[in-house]
Design brief:
This protein has about 375 residues and is α/β, with parallel strands linked by helices. The protein contains twelve helices and eleven strands. The protein has three domains: about 160 residues, no CATH class; about 70 residues; about 120 residues, CBS-domain.
């Protein structure tokens, strides 16, 4: 898909522009958090600029927009780095807890994973540092309050995002480190996932300890935020760990090893005769060929079983064959994630496996891939 092609948006999101070649989306939850920020910041606005009345809420909303523009900059840096390594970045979404960059594909090397991940927190820290510098020459008032808030928020976001636990950027940094040391990407994900779970537990219990540690009494908002953030971290890390466990089984899937012995027959041969020949040859699949011997279609196992035996002598085998449209011819050397991606692009029950020179290897059945995947987990 080209960058200019229209893209479908997730439900509950609104496109507001394009940055670094990626759609910028705002989730419905963003409007809620922007309103909350406006209300929370309003007293500080009133103190910095007395006499604004109801306009203080508008000033608070403006601060929320500025704050999320810095979040957008954080996410855009991920997008730029990912594109530098050739990955497609479909969208940047701003939501309740910050932002998310949708990158298609996985890093191929630990270095790529590290740089794509670390550039976001570094960008936030840089914005915070610049805001601190600007603070020194900013006059008292509303502008100073905004600059100080921007500095504090970005420094906090930068530091917290470096916490070594998924789904935070620091978790991906930890994943890249473990990956580089062990040579196993999935082990890196598992370790970083546990880091995310520990971080989630720490966040959940923070309100119970914050008075003792920093002398601030927690209120109901602190408990709610701790629960929401903890749930987000726990679910994100758990999902990453589950995905890593599944994907660690994918290398066991090799198309060539799963190929069924295949019988080739003319497309006008009666189905009953084709089935008889397949049984005689102990073939698990049938492929129809042209008069010159070129593969033309794959006989559907389900269609054969659905055809009554008394009708099979009168039905041409081509009637129960699926023509070899694009995506149904796969290289026999496909394995692991490449095999799964090829199947997902063109869903079908059977695929024709061929050598680089076009010679027939056999037929790959999706059911066989599923069985091999389940067996690899035991």
């Amino acid at each position: 898909m080209s960058d200019s092609a229209p893209r479908s948006r997730p439900p509950g999101t609104l496109k507001v522009g394009t940055v670094a070649g990626s759609d910028v989306l705002i989730s419905s939850s963003w409007f809620l958090v922007a309103g909350l920020i406006a209300v929370i910041v309003a007293p500080a606005v009133d103190e910095a600029q007395p006499g604004l009345g109801g306009w203080k809420y508008l000033a608070g909303l403006a601060f929320a927009v500025i704050l999320y523009l810095s979040v957008l900059l954080h996410e855009a840096s991920h997008a730029v780095m990912a594109r530098r390594y050739g990955f497609s970045v479909t969208s940047i979404t701003l939501h309740f807890l910050g932002g998310m960059t949708s990158i298609e594909g996985e890093a191929r090397k630990p270095r790529q994973e590290f740089l794509i991940a670390v550039v976001g927190p570094l960008t936030s820290l840089a914005v915070g540092a610049i805001a601190l510098g600007v603070r020194e020459v900013t006059p008292e008032g509303l502008l100073l309050m905004a600059v100080e808030g921007l500095a504090g928020a970005n420094l906090l976001v930068g530091i917290l995002n470096l916490v070594p636990g998924l789904p935070l950027d620091g978790g991906r940094v930890l994943k890249s480190a473990v990956w580089g040391l062990t040579g196993n990407m999935h082990r890196g994900t598992i370790v970083a996932g546990w880091g995310g779970r520990l971080t989630a537990a720490a966040v959940l219990f923070w309100p119970f300890l914050q008075e003792e540690l920093i002398g601030t009494t927690p209120d109901m908002v602190d408990y709610i935020l701790a629960f929401v953030i903890s749930a987000f971290l726990w679910s994100g890390s758990t999902a990453a760990m589950a995905s890593a466990r599944l994907r660690s089984r994918l290398p066991h899937l090799v198309a060539r090893e799963l190929a069924r012995r295949t019988l080739t027959v003319p497309s006008d041969l009666p189905l009953a005769e084709a089935v008889r020949r397949a049984h005689e040859a102990q073939a698990g699949s049938i492929v129809t060929v042209t008069s010159s011997g070129a593969p033309e279609g794959i006989v559907s196992e389900a269609a054969v079983q659905a055809t009554p035996a008394d009708r099979q002598p009168w039905v041409a085998v081509s009637a129960v064959a699926r023509s070899l449209e694009e995506g149904l011819r796969l290289p026999a050397g496909l394995a692991g994630e490449d095999l799964v991606m090829a199947i997902s692009r063109t869903p079908a029950a059977e695929y024709l496996l061929v050598e680089p020179d076009g010679s027939l290897v056999g037929v790959l059945a999706t059911a066989d891939v599923d069985r091999a995947f389940r067996a690899a987990g035991h």
